[in-house]
Amino acid sequence: RVHRLEERQARTIGIEVGEVNIGVAYAMMLLVWPEGPRQDAVFSGIIAYTIFNQALVWGITAFWARDNLAKLLCRRRSSKVHGDRSTASSAPSSGACEVSP
């Protein structure tokens, strides 16, 4: 699992990534077709869909993983301040890195 996402979240992201890959493969197939206005229109549409779908995947992933990413960053910052990870985990929290449950 990616950043401890729930199963539903991981599956949704996997499906979206799969759609992006299918879009890219289909666009590559269109490159083999003879040139023409219809093929150009289809190719442009697939590329636009793929780009916007990828942006959606990044947005969904960032939204779902934000708390886990924030906790990871806090641990890294704390370990840099305190020298190592063993002292970072036992160090009192400053409150700046508190993440809602």
TrEMBL record:
<keyword id="KW-0472">Membrane</keyword>
<keyword id="KW-0812">Transmembrane</keyword>
<protein>
    <submittedName>
        <fullName>Uncharacterized protein</fullName>
    </submittedName>
</protein>
<feature type="transmembrane region" description="Helical">
    <location>
        <begin position="12"/>
        <end position="34"/>
    </location>
</feature>
<feature type="region of interest" description="Disordered">
    <location>
        <begin position="77"/>
        <end position="101"/>
    </location>
</feature>
<keyword id="KW-1133">Transmembrane helix</keyword>
<feature type="transmembrane region" description="Helical">
    <location>
        <begin position="46"/>
        <end position="65"/>
    </location>
</feature>
